[in-house]
Design a protein that fits this description.
The protein is α/β, with parallel strands linked by helices and 218 residues long. It contains 6 helices and 6 strands; from the N terminus they run αβαβαβββααβα. The protein has a single domain, classed as 3-Layer(aba) Sandwich (Lysozyme-like). A 6-stranded mixed beta sheet has the order 1-4-3-5-2-6.
């Protein structure tokens, strides 16, 4: 992970991030819509999932956290296909199928897959409060050293953070999910379930870059 942090430090020193400021405007980055079918069936499944896991029968998202992921794929195509297929996932075997709100390709193109008003299944214990951002890639280092991709990622996360007034500490990697202050899970066997993508060391560097541009004062 040291190499990943060093690579990000080089980006910072080369002007990758703007200087720290007490107040600045944060513009929405360019986003392409690649909507998956979030129809009545999927909304019903999501509400039922939310009831089982969180005790709230609703598919509506209350954004308080941003979770960063990588896809373990080399291209975007299989991710689009997996998220669009409303089939039981291979890990927990539940419905609805897994999805995330955004996917950032290796080219730096940002795709939005579902509206920010609805939940997606991407992080156990946090789906009712978390915006999910997937990055096409096979490792933390692969994402963090792809200049176009990480630039797009930081821009998107900054915009979402400011739009929803999300605290810096609540921008997390999937590997940090269990330690989130918003993590809650009704099913005992899943309370420590998480994944290894976007490790704490990676996210400390990521958050340090996000923090260099402040949100406008309300």
């Amino acid at each position: 992970m040291t190499a990943t942090i060093a690579a990000l430090a080089v980006m910072l020193s080369s002007g990758f991030a703007p200087p720290a400021a007490t107040q600045s405007s944060v513009a929405q980055p360019p986003v392409r819509h690649h909507w998956i079918n979030y129809n009545a069936k999927r909304r019903s499944e999501m509400a039922a999932y939310s009831m089982r896991h969180y005790g709230r029968h609703s598919y509506h998202l209350v954004p308080r956290v941003i979770v960063e992921h990588w896809t373990q794929t080399r291209t975007a195509a299989p991710v689009f296909a997996m998220f669009a297929a409303d089939t039981p996932d291979s890990e927990l075997h539940e419905l609805p199928g897994v999805c995330s709100h955004y996917l950032i390709d290796t080219t730096g193109t940002i795709y939005q897959l579902v509206p920010l008003t609805v939940m997606c299944r991407h992080t156990v214990g946090l789906n009712d409060h978390a915006i999910g951002i997937e990055h096409v890639g096979m490792s933390d280092r692969g994402v963090m050293t792809n200049h176009r991709q990480i630039t797009a990622s930081i821009r998107l996360t900054r915009w979402l953070r400011c739009r929803y007034r999300i605290a810096l500490q609540d921008i997390i990697g999937h590997s940090e999910s269990v330690s989130s202050r918003f993590h809650h899970e009704r099913i005992a066997r899943l309370r420590n379930q998480t994944h290894s993508d976007m490790q704490p060391a990676t996210m400390r560097s990521y958050r340090s870059v996000v923090a260099r541009q402040a949100c406008p004062l309300p």
